Amino acid sequence: xxxxLNENSKVIVQGMTGSEGSKHTQRMLASGTAIVGGxxxxxxxxSVDFDGASVPVFGGVAEAMKETGADVSVIFVPPPFAxxxxxxxxxxxxGLAVVITEGIPVHDSTYVWAHAQGGATRIIGPNCPGLxxxxxxxxxxxxxxxxxxxxxxxxxxxxxLTYQMMYELRDxxxxxxxxxxxxxxxxxxxxxxxxAFQDDPETEAIVMIGEIGGDAEERxxxxxxxNVTKPVVGYVAGFTAPEGKTMGHAGAIVSGSAGTAxxxxxxxxxxxxxxxxxxxxxxxxxxELVGA
Length: 292
Hints:
Blueprint: E1 10-14, H1 19-30, E2 34-39, E3 47-50, E4 53-58, H2 61-68, E5 72-75, H3 79-91, E6 96-99, H4 106-116, E7 122-124, E8 130-133, E9 137-140, E10 149-156, H5 159-168, E11 174-179, H6 190-199, E12 205-211, H7 216-227, E13 232-237, H8 261-270, E14 274-276, H9 279-290
Parallel strand pairs: 1-2, 1-5, 2-4, 5-6, 6-7, 10-11, 10-12, 12-13, 13-14
Antiparallel strand pairs: 3-4, 8-9, 8-11
């Protein structure tokens, strides 16, 4: 099995005809993702050819879902228009909306998050690489050729560290790798993914990658202690970051002792999580746990 995304997922791409949307639609198709349509109101009724695969363009998400049975949307829409695109996906009640766009104003993300509460749509992102269930489906920008299907679940704030961990543990492989994004306001959280991996019978162990700033990792540690029985390995980016400096993601800012890598490590270790000081050390700890 996998979480949130599998071989039966039917994916549409909002912004498929733009440069980034087109490039990554090509990559998703090449990795075996079932891309069933794109969304662009100005180009509705046309189609786009991707190496012989003709993908229709629809005027809206609801129309695309009705015509194709799509249950996943990947959003490659520029920041000024991303809020409207995400709200359209939520209003159409698509099962999963993956918001890749970077630089969306926090106010817009907050509005979308509030609008989605109690609805049918799970949001991943924004400012994220998406998610991949290797050998099954790939929704976003994660390279599909760096790992294989396996028994590890991965949830990460950082896109590039997602890729590194997938590559480091490529011989073991992953059920699903989810890049949740590092903005201050995101949809799906560490805790959401931890619960899903706990419930997935094919996921035997979990890697959780966090970073400085906020308290998401501390809250995840509390959740792990109370609810997760599978082994968890952690890594927190930013051990060498100076206090009070924004590092990378908009959410990665440390205030006093709160949000530091050391505080997060302490909370995770208190919950029984083995924490690596580097991505490679975290990968080594996971190998020891699963006997590989």
